[in-house]
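From the methods appendix. Each design record in this collection lists the tokenized structure first, followed by the designed amino acid sequence. Records were kept in a plain field format so they could be parsed without special tools. The example shown here is representative of the layout used throughout.

RECORD:
FOLD TOKENS (278 positions):
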């Protein structure tokens, strides 16, 4: 899809009240899309709806919002049935809802692990499983699931998060194969560290080793990620990886996994040696 293709497209965007999701919603509104934003908390959702409405090309564009916890299957079923009935079948489905609370593996409770999987993986399953049949009947569309570079490269401190995002990449790759004959494209957005409210929360629990491993990488803005997504959708690849540094890191992990592992281990050892020397 080129930027002009988004004019009057019907977009359902999950996790669109903050960060990357909100930036994408604003960009698409400026390109002429009709947008329904879904998010768990009503107050940020209401503010996001107003901010997106201000970016519209014309007053004829629809911008609406619906409170929704994507991890709640029953709630997703009811809310999406109403959304399809009132707003129509989406041409574009974008999943941005997610959570990350980095800790060492032994400090992550089973309940925290399960919650990460419910939001990051089950949440996408819930929205796609309920909307894909409508999109197939409608003749096609585009689905974007948001994973992470940490869905392609395992990172210290993110055992639960990486598990959910690696799984989401596999889910999306298989889904892409199944839906392609029905005119539906599936891509996975894999951003690096991005300056969002969620990233600020991550930094509160992030182990020193995690900070050391990610320190050399450039932090992107939500707007940079949104622009990379829109450019990437024109090519319709499986993976959309914003930023040249991230693409090089993923390529290196594929071609030279031992070198990447050595570099990460070196950063981790330095942190642990400094701690042990105190």
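DESIGN:
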């Amino acid at each position: 899809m080129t930027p002009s293709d988004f004019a009057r497209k019907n977009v359902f965007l999950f996790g669109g009240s903050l960060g990357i999701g909100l930036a994408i919603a604003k960009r698409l509104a400026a390109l002429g899309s009709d947008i329904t934003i879904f998010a768990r908390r009503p107050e940020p959702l209401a503010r996001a709806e107003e901010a997106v409405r201000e970016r519209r090309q014309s007053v004829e564009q629809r911008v609406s919002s619906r409170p929704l916890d994507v991890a709640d299957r029953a709630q997703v079923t009811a809310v999406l049935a109403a959304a399809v009935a009132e707003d129509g079948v989406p041409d574009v489905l974008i999943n941005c809802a997610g959570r990350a609370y980095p800790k060492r593996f032994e400090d992550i409770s089973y309940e925290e692990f399960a919650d990460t999987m419910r939001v990051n993986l089950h949440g996408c399953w819930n929205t796609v499983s309920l909307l894909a049949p409508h999109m197939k009947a409608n003749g096609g569309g585009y689905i974007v699931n948001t994973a992470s570079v940490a869905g392609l490269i395992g990172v210290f401190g993110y055992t639960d998060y990486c598990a959910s995002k690696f799984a989401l990449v596999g889910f999306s790759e298989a889904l892409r194969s199944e839906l392609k004959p029905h005119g539906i494209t599936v891509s996975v957005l894999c951003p690096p560290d991005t300056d969002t409210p969620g990233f600020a929360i991550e930094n509160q629990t992030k182990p020193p080793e995690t900070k050391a491993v990610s320190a050399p990488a450039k932090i992107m803005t939500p707007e940079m990620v949104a622009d990379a997504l829109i450019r990437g959708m024109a090519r319709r690849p499986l993976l959309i990886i914003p930023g040249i540094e991230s693409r090089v890191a993923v390529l290196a992990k594929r071609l030279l996994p031992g070198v990447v592992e050595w570099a990460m281990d070196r950063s981790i050892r330095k942190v642990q040696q400094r701690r042990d020397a105190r």
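APPENDIX NOTE: The CA atoms of residues 109 and 160 lie 10 Å apart.
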